[in-house]
């Protein structure tokens, strides 16, 4: 098969072939990848065998070969195999951030069953839009002081929006198409780098602060909140 230039984990699975081996035959073979020996003189025990390589650099057309050893009377036999590309995480989450994120996870309902391990890695999976989440958004989000964006749109989150006023690096907030309620959060006016604030289609009440409407460079969306009003002109 052709593979892109990367590092791979390889695992091969072998079962004991009692029907052939009980008759006095022998099955001993070498395993190689692209001509490089992977395992020598494999003889599968009655319990079966698993062999693996945790870091194998590969690129282009790739061939896995099973070669019988001299004196082996039976041909090689493999029962299954897996190959995984190893993807670098690019670091790990600070303990204080991981603690806050776990609190946020506990406030959610219907979280995916595979949410485990480092809560911030890989970075490609940091967008939580349209994930079928319900529950609420925990106030511990305010402890994630390096956050630049919050993407939780198109879920079923409810309750009030916690105070993000301490998140001075926040640029983008997407909480649209949820069930958030309570007074319109006034703290957004004090977030200096905020450029996108999408709160449409929720159940927010009160009035949109006039200084937020006048904030230069801010794209603000609040439609679909039936109990929310605009300040008088």
Automatic annotation (TrEMBL):
Subcellular location: Membrane
SUPFAM superfamilies for this protein: L domain-like
The Malectin-like domain, residue ranges: 5-85
Membrane topology, record value: Single-pass membrane protein
Pfam families referenced in this protein's UniProt entry, alphabetically: LRR_1, Malectin_like
Residues in coiled coil: none
Keywords: Membrane, Signal, Transmembrane, Transmembrane helix
Name of the molecule in the record: Malectin-like domain-containing protein
Naturally occurring in which organism (per UniProt): Brassica napus
């Amino acid at each position: 098969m052709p593979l892109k230039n990367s590092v791979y984990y390889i695992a091969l699975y072998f079962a004991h072939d009692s029907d052939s081996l009980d008759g006095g035959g022998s099955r001993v073979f070498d395993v190689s990848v692209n001509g490089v020996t992977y395992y020598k003189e494999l003889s599968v025990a009655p319990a079966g065998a698993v062999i693996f390589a945790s870091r194998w650099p590969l690129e282009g057309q790739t061939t896995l070969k099973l070669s019988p050893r001299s004196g082996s009377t039976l041909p090689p036999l493999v029962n299954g195999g897996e190959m995984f590309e190893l993807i670098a995480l690019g670091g790990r989450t600070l303990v204080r951030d991981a603690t806050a994120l776990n609190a946020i996870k506990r406030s959610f309902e219907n979280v995916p069953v595979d949410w485990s391990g480092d809560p911030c890695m890989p970075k490609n999976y940091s967008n939580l839009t349209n994930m079928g989440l319900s529950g609420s958004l925990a106030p511990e989000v305010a402890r994630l002081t390096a956050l630049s964006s919050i993407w939780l749109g198109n879920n079923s989150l409810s309750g009030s929006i916690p105070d993000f006023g301490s998140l001075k690096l926040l640029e983008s907030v997407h909480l649209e198409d949820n069930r958030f309620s309570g007074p319109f959060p006034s703290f957004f006016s004090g977030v200096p780098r905020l450029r996108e604030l999408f709160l449409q289609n929720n159940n927010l009440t009160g009035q949109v602060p006039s200084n937020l409407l006048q904030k230069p460079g801010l794209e603000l969306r609040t439609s679909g909140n039936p109990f929310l009003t605009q300040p008088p002109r």
